[in-house]
Amino acid sequence: MAVSMTFGISRRRAFRKLVGNSRDRLYRMAYAWTHNSNLADDLVQQALCKALTNRRQLKDPGAAEAWLFRILSNCLKDHYRAKREVLTEEELVIVDNRTPEHETEEQQLVGKVRNAVARLPMAQRQVITLVDLEGFTYASVSDILEIPVGTVMSRLCRGRRALRELLIDIRPQREDGRTGNLKRVK
Fold first, then answer.
1. Hey, which residues does 179 pair with through a beta bridge?
2. Would the CA dihedral through 165, 91, 98, 74 be positive or negative?
3. How far apart are CA 52 and CA 71, in angstroms?
4. What pTM was computed for the model?
5. Structure-derived torsion over alpha carbons of residues 127, 129, 134, 136, reported in degrees to the nearest 10
6. How many angstroms separate the most distant Cα atoms in the chain?
7. d(CA 128, CA 137)
8. Which of 72, 75, 147, 148 is the most exposed, having the fewest neighbouring CB atoms within 10 Å of its CB?
9. Which positions ≥6 away from 102 have C-beta within 8 Å?
10. Other CB atoms within 10 Å distance of the CB of residue 137
């Protein structure tokens, strides 16, 4: 009896630690999806509360991160449902032109890439950020967003193609004057 009680306490502590350690990654993802710091913070708070409340629903502790990101995705869906907005992909395009002139070249590049990602439709943005920035597998992204793996792959392909077109002006110049290819994140 005492052994199972101790095991339960250590599992709860491990789960709370995982949830606490995932907060920053969840916030980065929510911000990448919404480009609104207040909304991102609210979504993360909701996701963490739901995760702690429903921790017994997690069947596989190895899939806890994907489970947390799925909860976050569902919180975003719930937010848009609550607002009763019916948005097309074209309406979800967000442009971020807040790059200060005095920033370093690297910061300007990061700003251009963020801007390009923000201009992607929400569906492509979610898949790009989960796969290329957070390193989730296609299967995990499929579970998080509750879409087929084939849809993940097609959105990823279209999103990367769109990013390539949006970022064509920042391709590095080679010594022979031709443009080089941008490196893939993953």
1. 173
2. negative
3. 11
4. 0.56
5. 10
6. 73
7. 11
8. 148
9. none
10. 13
